[in-house]
Every structure is written in C-alpha cells, then in structure tokens.
Amino acid sequence: MDIEALKGVIIEEFIKQFNEKGPKVTLDSVCKEIHISKKTIYKVFQSKTDIFNCILLDALSAVKEGQKKIYEDASLPFRQKIYDILTIPFPRQDEVDLSKIGEFNSYDPEFYAAVLDAYRPNWGMVESLIEQGKALGEVRQDVDPKLSTLVIMDALMGLFEKDRLKALGLTYSEALGKIVSLVLNGIYA
After folding, report:
1. Same domain membership, residue 70 and residue 32
2. CA–CA gap between residue 31 and residue 17 (Å, rounded)
3. What gap in Å lies between CA 162 and CA 158, rounded to an integer?
4. Based on the structure, what is the number of domains in the chain?
5. 7 and 88: one domain?
6. 172 and 103 share one domain
7. What is the pTM of this model?
8. How does pLDDT run across 83-134, given as a tens digit for each residue?
9. 3-state secondary structure string, the chain?
10. What is the mean pLDDT of the chain?
11. Which residue range forms the structural domain that includes residue 35?
12. CATH number for the domain harbouring residue 152
C-alpha cells in the first residue's frame, strides 16, 4: 500500500473512532482496527494531533478554494452568492460527528483553540460581499459587515459545544443553513 492510500485508511478509521470516542481516540486503537503497527502509522503521521490537523487543514483548504470560486462567479445573484459562500460544505462534513469537537475544549484546549482560529481568517470575502450588497441596495446601509460576520461565527462556534447539535435535533449542515438564513434575512434591505 502506498503512503497516500495508507493515509486515507488511517484517516477513515480515525474518523470512525472519533465519532464513537471523541478526542479520546488513540493511535493504538486505530492501529489495532486496521492491522498496522504504530511504527507504520508514524511513517504517515507524527501524532494523533497531526491526524486531526490533517483533517482540519484539508477541510479548510477545500472550503477556501470553493469560496473563492463562488466569490468570483459573476453569474451568481448576490443573495445566492453570499449564502453559498457561508454554507459551503467541507470534505467529510457529514462523516465527522462535529458535536464532539466541543469535547476538545477540556481534552486538548490547544487544538480546540486552533479549530476556532481556523474559522477566523475566512471572513474577508463575506465582509466584502456585504459591502457590495450595500452598494447594490441588497443590504441595509446600517449593517456593519464585521459585526454581521462576528454574529455568524459565534453562532457557528456555539454549535461545537457539547451536545448542542443533538439538543437542537439538527445536523451541522442543517443548523448552519438556519443560522445563515436568519442572519442574512436580518441584513437584507
């Protein structure tokens, strides 16, 4: 098995176990399930955190690329463009139990902070679109783009708190769509 194929197998098993155990998943249990040694896993990943980071960075990269395509698509109407940018799915979104992300806050606060920080730099396009929407008359003139993105970002971060999605009876995708619609309907002219 080549390194890329091995990486994929490790990530698949890691996600499966993360969904069951949350951040308490261990490299030992992953190795046991896919019948490889820890020495083999260390050829691909330096640590459990390295696997989490790989999944996170892959997702962020795909989201940024997708957002850029949407942002640059002149054929999209303003409201569809801003909604699509805010609700773009990321790889493995439906595979990973995102309700377990909040458990990192107590288990690995450094990684949890990294997850939250990963969301912050992606808001420039949204703020720019809100300004464009104001110029087009699609967005109310009194709307502050930074405040609008802060409201959305804080609401999304709240979804990662333990059992929040389960309590709402929503998937991350469903909750995201509802939050974005609620905020956007509040800023439209």
Report:
1. no
2. 11
3. 9
4. 2
5. no
6. yes
7. 0.83
8. 999 998 887 877 888 778 778 888 888 877 877 777 665 688 999 999 999 9
9. CCHHHHHHHHHHHHHHHHHHHHHHCCHHHHHHHHCCCHHHHHHHCCCHHHHHHHHHHHHHHHHHHHHHHHHHCCCCCHHHHHHHHHHCCCCCCCCCCHHHHHHHHHHCHHHHHHHHHHHHHHHHHHHHHHHHHHHHCCECCCCCHHHHHHHHHHHHHHHCCCCHHHHHCCCHHHHHHHHHHHHHHHHEC
10. 89
11. 1-45
12. 1.10.357
Q: In the prediction, which pLDDT does 120 show? A: 65
The answer to the question of residue 85 being in a domain is yes
Query: Could you tell me if residue 169 is inside a domain?
Result: yes
Asked, for residue 51, whether it belongs to a domain, the answer is no
Rounded mean pLDDT, 149-169:
84
In a domain, 89, yes or no: yes
pLDDT digits (tens, 9 = 90+) for 62-75: 888 999 999 999 99
Residues 20 and 72 both lie in one domain: no
**Same domain for 33 and 125?**
no
Residue 79 has pLDDT above 70, yes or no: yes
AA identity, residue 48: K
**Nearest residue to 148 via CA among 174, 179, 117:** 179
Nearest to 82 by CA among 186, 180, 182, 189: 180
Q: How many other C-beta atoms can be found within 10 angstroms of the C-beta atom of residue 18? A: 24
